[in-house]
Design a protein that fits this description.
The chain is an alpha/beta fold. 38% of the residues lie in helices and 26% in strands. It contains five helices and ten strands.
Length: 171
């Protein structure tokens, strides 16, 4: 079995999670979607950081799979965000379950496994555009605008176990 981890990360927490998944799953390849060459794995694990309530466009394009590269592959999905639970607010729906559903819809079939994983935001590392957008979002949501770290090794370990169990059943 060959394993390929494909992710999008802007500030690094999704990359760290992808690398941890790669180590645990003994992945042959761990790469940023922007550097993706060929889809080569039997098992493809795809993850996106969520910014401004949106899956990254390159991850969405990959999941839509117009070239059919994922047709005969087992696919697991993960989303990395600061809010892992569902929320409905005056500006709409959000939270991890919404993002995973969008990823599943783009894939067009049930994935092998899914996981909502917590990320990290360090306010001082945000570029000016992200800082302004994120600060405005926090204000509209009535949330404090401060550093947040909800990354969890336990959640990553649980996802690895789910993937391994599901892949064995399917293989």
């Amino acid at each position: 079995m060959t394993v390929q981890i494909i992710y999008y990360s802007k500030y690094g927490s999704t990359r760290e999670i992808a690398e941890a998944l790669g180590r645990e799953l003994k992945a042959d390849t761990v790469c940023d979607v922007r550097e993706l060459g060929e889809i080569t794995g039997d098992l493809i694990v795809i993850g996106s950081a969520i910014y401004s309530e949106v899956i990254h466009k390159d991850i969405e394009r990959l999941l839509l799979d117009k070239e059919g590269q994922l047709n005969d592959k087992s696919v697991a999905l993960f989303a990395v965000c600061l809010r892992k639970t569902y929320i409905k607010s005056k500006i709409g729906e959000g939270g991890g379950p919404v993002y995973i559903k969008k990823m599943e819809k783009a894939l067009g079939r049930p994935p092998l496994a899914t996981k909502i994983l917590g990320g990290r935001m360090l306010v001082d590392e945000l570029d000016p555009e992200d800082r302004e957008r994120t600060e405005g979002f926090a204000r509209r949501q009535g949330m404090p605008f401060k550093d947040v770290n909800v990354m969890s090794d336990t959640d990553v370990d649980e996802f690895v176990k789910e993937i391994k169990a599901s892949f064995r059943v399917q293989a």
